[in-house]
Amino acid sequence: MSRVDYSDVQGLLRFGYTRLTDARLYLMRIRDQAAARAWLASAPVSTAEAMSPPPTRALQVAFTASGLRSLGVREPIVASFSPEFVNGMVGERNRSHRLGDTGDNDPSKWLWGGPKDRIDLLVILLAAPGEMARWQQQVCNADWSRAFEGEVLNTSDLNGREPFGFIDGISQPELDWEGRRDTSQDQLDYTNLVALGEFVLGYLNEYGKYSERPLLDPDDEGADTLLPSQDDPGKRDLGRHGTYLVLRQLEQDVTGFWNFVNRQNGSNPSGKALAEALVGRRLDDGSPLVPLSADAIEGIPAAAGEPGNRFTYREDAEGLRCPFGAHIRRANPRNSDFPGRPSGIISRTLTMLGAGAPGFHDDLIASTRFHRLLRRGREYGRPGQDPGPAGLHFVCLNASISRQFEFVQNAWIVSGKFNGLPDESDPLLGAPEGRFSIPREGKCPARVAGIPRFITVRGGAYFFLPGIRAIRYFARAV
Amino acid sequence: MTPQSNLTLMAPIAAGRDTSLRSLLASMNRQPGEVDSLNSLLPFARFEDLHFARLVILDDQTTGDIAVYGQPPPSYPLYLAFLADFDGSYDEFLTQLVEHAGTGLRSIFSHCEGFNETTDIRAWMKDRECPPAAAYVNWIGRTAKQCRQEARLRTALVDYLAKAPDLLDQPAVQLHAQLREYAWKNGLMPEPEPKTPIRWWISNKLHAVLMAPILLLGLLLWTPVLLLVLRSRENSDPVIAPPPNPALAKKLADIEDHGFTNQFSAMGSLKPGVFRRWTTVLLLAAINYSTRHIYNKGALARVHSIHFARWIFIDNKKRMLFASNYDGSLESYMDDFINKVAFGLNVVFSNGIGYPSTRWLVLDGAKDEQKFKHFIRRHEFATEVWYNAHAGLSANDMRRNAAIRRQLEMERLNDGQAREWAALL
What we know:
The complex is a heterodimer of chains A (about 475) and B (about 425). Chain A has about 475 residues and is of the alpha+beta class. Chain A has 13 helices and 15 strands. In chain A, strands 9, 10, 11, 12 and 15 form a five-stranded antiparallel beta sheet that branches. Chain A is globular and about 70 Å long. Chain B has one domain. Chain B is about 45% helix and about 15% strand. Chain B has a four-stranded antiparallel beta sheet, with helices on one face. In chain B, helix 7 packs antiparallel against helix 9 (about 275-295). In chain B, about 45% of the residues are buried. The mean pLDDT of chain B is about 95. Classes of the chains: A alpha+beta (about 475), B alpha+beta (about 425). The interface between A and B is large, with 52 and 56 residues.
């Protein structure tokens, strides 16, 4: 028996629904508040309960701050969500700067989600092949038509590969649903098992604390239907079993990417080898460029057949196998709380005081466990078959947008100084005219220069993906 | 080596003059958060020994917090602070300032108490100098000029390499020899390090030797007092860490992240009473000792991202100002602190009113991540004018560039040294 009431959690937090290969993302505005509430009250939102046989259809619902307001949620309650969510992904110069949303990525150029575009909610429909038409008919009923207007982002099933051709979504954190993790101790080893509160609000996070979320007075209208807060039992927890959802439409220039890597010559690797260095994984089977670890890693099953998630970069401290700047090394550096694994109390104290980092690249990266993302993206377009745009509707879930998504995007992906690198940002997601260093044994690093922008942001927004009780609370509204 | 010094001026603003001062300071910026480095009042970029500078009005939002201890909020003066970090001595820098920016400084200081057209600006500034209780310099003796020259050297080497494909595949030892020749031939080698001023050297050594026993004795004597008094207070001291006020947050956000390096200014009141005051004095003296003699080569304990920082007592040690220049976003700066040096934050800032509860002075505190971040953002205030002579260069970049240069000065490297050196390019 789990400690978590899965019937109150939206399924996306527990399942990737990879068998439901048909996905549609509806970006909607509320036209009619009453109809929107009526639709929400009866929407067949999928929960995290395990079903047998597995479902062939799923529905998920998430709201922007303007969506909550449009539903009639009172301003003080909206304001008690996290500031990033309330302010939104666009509209603040420094946020756009930090996220790399400048130049061609500037929100004023986005197809949706830009500063003038209002989006109230995201409705995700997932279905097994052949099921979508009927599912859509059922979900988008008469209330829906009266309630909402908007547009739909279509997706395509590329067999688990992103448009450049690499297997996507191999590395995912393992959520600690059972509460097994002891976060009170320093972590000497990389762990993939992450405290539930990093992804599900209302539970303890990696600091052993509860992340910020709206807590209501029990006398507030409708609040009695919500669960009591774990850390403040006098309050009702509107965040409980919810999380924040980040959506970004990332358009990928597939032809440009392969043309660029194939064009390289001289000392630099080219073609597939360069593509693999930029990504950090092999094209064919998705295995990492560093060897798999002989030791078990907490939260990563040792099962045969998994394409390769059981590794860290500890044995590749000089970046000779996987360049420091490779995309997967940036997105998840797989380090622990200390460099050099100081296990004794004296060595740990010395490390804490700064004596544990002799090399230039040592100890420059924040401890990974506070900065994990649960990715639920879907591809779009048909590269190679269809000349139209292709890319990824990047979706990630996290309990703190600022400490998780924004931190990873800013300090690890966009930053030119990640891990002490000399002004080079992520080779796939970074700025144009980028550089990429490939460390080599006994020589200076090879350097790929003039990397164009392969990936352009075309839209984006922050959403709150509520628990089921919270959805019903919003439906009754306040 | 030329050690850095700092200027830390605090001057009460004359009654009713703060609005006019704010707009004068704003006129030094191109936009909020982005200074015009050659503005007519204080053309920072003309001072080649200057690393960082700021002009900031100490808008303490939190003077009322002392009410939680049943005390009425004192009425403190509103200060203008002028902070600068530079190479060489305070007196030399002050002379340069007065010479090259005397007129501009006069119009700024004319908003402060005790300043008029006839004031001797040099004496006036010296009178208002308020030496920090503790100061941190990322790398003692790394001059601004050196940072520029070493950055130029690295860029030139990398550009040369990009155009000389036959060099790229040379083994490290040969590469070193050839690049060394290239650098010398083309006058790229930075100027040799000047001699360390003898007076500084002696006083620094004396400080290292004499202060150690004094501090140790102080800590030893204070520990039982700490143990007796601290635990009970730690449990009862109120925490004040509400989510930040959106208007203040927006104002701060507007001036952040214009480049890779950011400024941070924050202040607050010490918890009332002699115990907290002397605990803070002692611990800051210990921190100052460690930054002078231990953490002076690229990192403050495990944190590599701070260029300069200082802790300054004001109003008879009732309040403290903390000012720093750091790499990355505020969020990553705070995360770095929480995850790497929470103990160091706790020992000082837990003596401030409202800090998240600590245990035994070093435990918990900043580890309450959300409350700590709220506390920090609540005490932060907008820096009116901020100048960074090293835009685009992180402290780590400077460390790498200096290492490249140091090894390039060596006539020959062995294979191991050469490999390490080549990897830095």
